Amino acid sequence: MHVVPDRTLGDHPPLDVLLVPGGRGAREIEPRNPAITGWIAETAAQASWVVGVCTGAFLLHAAGPARGRRVATHRDYEDALEARGDVTVVRDARYVVDGDLLTTQGVSAGIDGALWLVGRLHGREHARAVRREIQYDPAPPYLADEPL
After folding, report:
1. pLDDT at position 3, please?
2. Residue 102: helix, strand or coil by DSSP?
C-alpha cells in the first residue's frame, strides 16, 4: 500500500481541524524534526480544533500546542509523555478536551473522540448518525466478567 499526499506542508488550504496521528514516529522520531513541529505549531495556531490520537500527543507537546495542557495518550506511554514536563497526562480517560485541544488514548478511543468532535461541530444527532453509519457500537469480546 502506498499513501500519497495531495498537498505538501507548504501547499494546503487553511485547516479547520488539525489531526495528528500517533505511532512510533510520532513519539520517537518526528518530535525532533523542526520542519514537522514548526508546521504543527503554525497550523495549530490557525485551526479551530487540534486533535491528537494516541501518541500524537508527543508531537503536539514537542510543537507546543499540548504544553501546559491536559492531555490523553496511549496508556503505555503516559509516563514517558509526563516526564517531558509542562503537560498533565489524564489517565483512564478515553479522550480529553482542553479548550480547542482534543487528545485521545488509542485507536478505539480515537473513534470516541472523533464522534465527540463531530457532535461539537455538527450536533449530537449528526454524531449519532455517523456512529450508526460506521456501525460503532462497542461490544468487545472476552470481558473480565464473561465466562469463556
Report:
1. 87
2. strand
Domain locations in the chain? 17-105
Residues 137-145: contacts with CB under 8 Å, at least 24 apart? 138/108
CA pair distance 21, 26, nearest whole angstrom: 7
Q: Which CATH class is domain 17-105?
A: alpha beta
Q: 32 to each of 26, 41, 66, 125, how far by Cα in Å?
A: 10, 13, 16, 41
pTM, entire model? 0.92
The rounded average pLDDT for each run of 10 residues, N- to C-terminus, in the chain (148 residues) is: 90 96 95 97 98 98 98 98 98 97 96 98 97 92 72
